[in-house]
């Protein structure tokens, strides 16, 4: 049912719980979905990479590849055909999307024991480095070509749920943890983080968003339903807050104009919603319709660049959906 311009267009059910999805950076109509399945008998964690063709605003499954369970993936800015995948077994892997209906495994890099989950990853702007956050609270940066670990920080008491390079200064990166702490690191100072924000968040920090158009500002999301905008020059005092009614698992930047920054919010048990952050970061507009079709935790989301066709996926109901919001077309 359409709600305030929100219209579901297609759905499909993956065999295993789905927790991340992104449109291909090479073939714009291809959607990549990652899954995570825990075998309760063996305690092994399995995953699949699934490709969908969305040309007709439908979900046509065209490729499936088995791998270890997946928690996150990103496309390389250096080579858009390269997909870096975070696994639940202490390693990352790289795939190439050279042909429309196929992903090709390139190599893997082990970063921790197989009991450690790689929870999130992010590329530096030049695509030469990759940062990852781990379930043991560590944050690591690696040189992609050599696979050598460049820096390791252990500043979170619990899981480091997310990691994100600053798009204002790529020497800096942020991590958010289950300890409700937002950390900032400078790669030129490998011994410790340069600041900790222990005041702004009431629960686990699960998403961080920085864009070149944001300048020194960032947006963050909490497990406990709150989204914030922060000025990194004045940490500990959020510029704006909004209760989105669901854990703010991912924030995906769509575009910026003179008035606002449009962002897709992936909101766990609430679904997903298009948000608008004021250009001065003083407010967060969450008045648009919410996509409610997911029946469990919504963990993944992305939008198709040519027409803002939104894809989201959810975990326990193993569901992938395509939808659009007529009130928020591509500007």
| Mean pLDDT across all amino acids | 96
Give me the Rg, rounded: 18 Å
Series of secondary-structure elements, N-terminal to C-terminal: EEEEEEEEEEEEEEEEEEEEEEEEEEEEEE
By CATH, the architecture is named 7 Propeller
Structural class: mainly beta
Number of domains: 1
Uncertain segments: none
Task: State the end-to-end CA separation.
Answer: 25 Å
CATH superfamily: YVTN repeat-like/Quinoprotein amine dehydrogenase
Q: In this structure, how is the largest beta sheet organized? A: 5 strands, antiparallel
Number of DSSP E strands = 30
Report the β-strand fraction as a percent range: over 45%
Proportion of residues in helical segments: under 10%
- Per CATH, what is the topology? Methylamine Dehydrogenase, Chain H
Keywords: Hydrolase, Repeat, WD repeat
Catalytic activity: diphthine methyl ester-[translation elongation factor 2] + H2O = diphthine-[translation elongation factor 2] + methanol + H(+)
Pfam families: ANAPC4_WD40
Protein name: methylated diphthine methylhydrolase
Question: Could you characterize what this model shows?
Answer:
The chain is 0% helix and 54% strand. The mean pLDDT is 96. The protein contains no helices and 30 strands. The protein has one domain: Methylamine Dehydrogenase, Chain H (7 Propeller), CATH 2.130.10. The chain is an all-beta fold and 331 residues long. Strands 2, 3, 4, 5 and 6 form a 5-stranded antiparallel beta sheet that branches. Strands 23, 24, 25, 26 and 27 form a 5-stranded antiparallel beta sheet that branches. It is globular. Its EC number is 3.1.1.97.
